[in-house]
Amino acid sequence: MNETYPTLRYCILGQGNYAVSMLLDNLQACFPKRDIEVEIIANLLEADNDSLIYPYATPGIVCVEKFHTDWTPDVNVPCLVGTFGRGRKAIFEFFAANYGINAEYYAISIHPTSTCSPTLHHGHGLYIGPLSVVGPQTHFGNFVAISRKVSVGHHTVLEDYVGLNPGVDVAGVCHLGKGVIIGAGAVVLDKVKIGEGSMIGAGSVVTKDIPAGVVAYGVPAKVIRSI
């Protein structure tokens, strides 16, 4: 037990074990000398959650799993969203509707190996994984999730719930609408706009604007179908 500093407490809402493992890794990296306790609050039954077969145990962090009906919220404990991708919006809305956990209760989680410009403007619930770079005068909405080795260029806007998978490179002066998901290794060139809810396939190169509500992929990326 660390007697110098009090134990840090967090609450992960929703249990996607892929995301939980990465959230715990971020916490351990940010606070390597602190004792950390985390409640993991599931909102899906075990039979409906195929991520549970994947481990998440992280040295130095004590975790307790609960189903949401057995949980009592504590406004003094910061929350994290326990999934990435499209599930982030669903989890936020579930706990907001059922427990009054609004956006301001969610902490940000930025891995210490990542570099963010001091002129980054961001909302609540931001996650940034290891070795990512965020340029100057960028604007992020609520619950943006940026995986490892991602680059976001200057004056780029990421609206609420945008998700960037590993190795994505978004150039400068781009605008990604709400809920846009960019697949691993994709490149978005300067000044491109991608409409709300669209998905870009892994390895794509986006050279021109993409409308809302579509799937696009390829080099260069082309619209394949509507969502």
Topology:
Elements: E1 8-13, H1 17-30, E2 36-42, E3 61-67, E4 79-81, H2 87-99, E5 109-110, E6 115-116, E7 127-128, E8 133-134, E9 139-140, E10 145-146, E11 151-152, E12 157-158, E13 163-164, E14 169-170, E15 175-176, E16 181-182, E17 187-188, E18 193-194, E19 199-200, E20 205-206, E21 214-217, E22 222-226
Parallel strand pairs: 1-2, 1-4, 2-3, 5-7, 6-8, 7-10, 8-11, 9-12, 10-13, 11-14, 12-15, 13-16, 14-17, 15-18, 16-19, 17-20, 19-21
Antiparallel strand pairs: 21-22
Describe the structure.
The chain starts with 7 loop residues before the first strand and ends with a strand. The protein has helices at 17-30, 87-99, and strands spanning 8-13, 36-42, 61-67, 79-81, 109-110, 115-116, 127-128, 133-134, 139-140, 145-146, 151-152, 157-158, 163-164, 169-170, 175-176, 181-182, 187-188, 193-194, 199-200, 205-206, 214-217, 222-226. It contains two helices and 22 strands. The radius of gyration is 18 Å and the shape is globular. The protein has 227 residues and is of the alpha/beta class.
Q: Care to give the gist of this entry?
A:
The protein is built from two helices and 22 strands. The chain is α/β, with parallel strands linked by helices.
Brief descriptors of the model:
227 residues; Hexapep; 28% strand; transferase; eight-stranded mixed beta sheet; Hexapep_transf_CS; Sugar O-acyltransferase, sialic acid O-acetyltransferase NeuD family; alpha/beta; 2 helices; UDP N-Acetylglucosamine Acyltransferase, domain 1; globular; repeat
